[in-house]
Amino acid sequence: MKALKLLAAGLFFLCAQAMAVPYTWTDTYDPSPDIQVPPSHSFTFDITDGPNGFRPGQDYIGNYGVDVNLYSSPSEQIRICFGSLCTPVFDKPVIALVNLPGIMGDRVFFDLSGQENGGWSVAGWLQLNLAGTLDMTISSLLGSFYFGDATLTAEGERAVSEPGTLLLLGISLLAVVGAGRRRLA
Q1: DSSP labels for 33-52?
Q2: What is the pLDDT of residues 3-13, one digit of tens each?
Q3: Residue 12 to residue 126: CA distance in whole angstroms
Q4: Model pTM?
Q5: What is the largest CA-CA distance in the chain?
Q6: Which of 3, 24, 100, 127 has the fewest CB atoms within 10 Å, measured from its CB?
Q7: Pairing state of beta strands 35-37 and 145-160?
């Protein structure tokens, strides 16, 4: 009888653990029309929405990255004109700051060529794992530019339970109940 209870308890604990599979969550923030910076612009990514959204406390994010579309405005180009014919020679200096949670992980971009890869921070990783959101601010340190869009890609593990696992869990619970009834009788 004692062996049956130990077996049932072992099956219960074995089956109660969920399996984890690799998973990727994405969220895109795309303001329309594109936003001119300065002033700064803040927004929050949210990967918890939708049927396959991130579930804080169940799923786990191991790594994440942010891609940001920043580009210079035409007013930031220095032009040389000969009569009515003007041609841009080079862009005025532009410095953009992509600010993530925490004191580390911010990225500074000097040459805005379009798609830029943002930083990574421990505080941002914690915010994603605890709440499924990531705060971000884009600021100008010099000059003006446009913010087109940003995409967050978070990679980790999604907790899933298999039908066989649930079946074993049910059998182990029935065995525990049966052993308890037999002892009372």
Answers
A1: SPEEESS-EEEEEE---STT
A2: 555 555 555 55
A3: 31
A4: 0.69
A5: 106
A6: 3
A7: antiparallel
